[in-house]
Model the fold of this input.
Amino acid sequence: MTTRPIRFLHRGAVVEAPGFPPMTTVLDWLRLERRLTGTKEGCGEGDCGACTVALGRVKDGRLAYEPANACIMLLGQLDGAELVTVEDLASGGRLHPVQQALVDHHGSQCGFCTPGFVMSLFTLYQEGAGADREAVLERLAGNLCRCTGYRPIVDAALAACSTPPDDAHARRSAATAATLADLADGDDVFVGNEEAFFAAPASLDALASLMQRHPDATLVGGSTDVGLWITKQLRTLPKLVHTGRVAELRTLTVTDEALTIGAAVTYGEAAVALGALDPDVALLLQRLGSAQVRTAGTIGGNVANGSPIGDMPPLLISLGAEVALRHGEAVRTLPLERFFIAYGRQDRAPGEVVTHLRVPRLAAGEHLRVFKIAKRHDQDISSVMLAMAVRLDGGRIAGARIAFGGMAGIPKRAEAVEQALDGVAIDDGAAIGRAVARLGEDFTPLDDHRASAAYRLKVAANLVIKGLAEIAAGDRSATRLTPLRGASHAA
Ligand SMILES: Cc1cc2nc3c(=O)[nH]c(=O)nc-3n(C[C@H](O)[C@H](O)[C@H](O)COP(=O)(O)OP(=O)(O)OC[C@H]3O[C@@H](n4cnc5c(N)ncnc54)[C@H](O)[C@@H]3O)c2cc1C
Ligand code: FES
Ligand code: FES
Done:
């Protein structure tokens, strides 16, 4: 096995980092080591966007820039990417078009948030798609400003991102892509020693054998959960194994029957294929975290983390997904709902790796509804999340998989309600009311700062009723405040 240090492109040169403490974040490297203090630290937990940087990677044959939160991203995750910060934008003594637009539209006051806004807008500018207001709001959902107000910032964004990109980065994109292609080799990355290391194997065999040797190591996908263990819980994680270079975990296969999603596929990469399953899934992904979180966060990390309020598990359970795991040479597959045993406990042995998820498509006659209830529309964790797949046969319910997040210590199906709904006519409000009244048999929800137990039970019942009413009506638009994009609203 050939191993090498991490390598990435920064300011036109390849940086080779042969030694660094494994938990080093991109933000600490920039500010403390490189003394590049344009990138700010606000919250240190991925929420405010002050630390936003742009990562360039070759995707679908072209260089694409995505925003990322430097505060929770590990330095080792940069391997193979170009890192662009706010210091790298102005050129030839002139501000970058997004910077100039923020000046022209009075989009900055104290300026603390401004580098983060600039970098998010830089990534949108590079897309050159003639961004509309909706695209701007979506891209900026992970950037908070506490003094300017968003109207001038949005005006600046619309002015700057309405034309094809014509800046130094766009002009040298072919050369940058060629350099990144040279960095993309099949060698395993290993920095450190047997007691403390950052590793990024390039193949599933190498990952499995490394995890067998170090079952106490922490797997890292996008680090949007693990990063907070470091910055907020101040945990010491001496052995970190990144999955982002494992070719087999980075693939997403689409067939007529199912999607097979590698554990290290990010939300951003899975959005089109998953969103095509149903408009509700597209909306859920648009509201999951922020653009920065979706650049890094993986579907496998959301599942493996086992959070009772993660958004993917209820959705995937309602679709009948299976999870595949590998431990050394051994492989096994189980229905995803059986993976979650109890709060904080998953059916995963130390050293075992989630490799992929198999997500069947909806069968003929099956209808999906997904509702996320959170305190904010954008970038917020669910208080309650419902995903349900309901099969209709001649106007009657002939099977339902109803999965909730936020209602128990694990993502969990409402089995008593499912049974009570079996055979009920889809427009029989009284029978549906009696069925959802059984939610109390399925769940004893928590009272916490997000929502009370009584609220959770009430909202959960109402969501099931709302979903079934939409299915009965064959149209979702009448019950929605948020317009759905993409696929038709009906069905
Ligand atoms: C600002 C912010 C907003 C967020 N919003 C949402 C939201 O709206 N909805 C939501 O559901 N989540 C949200 N999250 C949580 C987080 O983004 C997700 O849980 C994400 O999917 C985690 O993926 P990751 O790749 O970053 O995981 P990591 O942080 O890399 O890992 C998470 C866990 O999974 C383990 N792991 C990772 N990969 C594997 C593997 N292949 N096999 C076994 N174990 C593995 C890790 O060891 C760790 O225990 C948010 C986080 C932040 C910071
Ligand atoms: S410092 Fe707030 S998101 Fe990174
Ligand atoms: S300009 Fe002060 S926080 Fe945005």
In short: The chain has a mean pLDDT of 95.
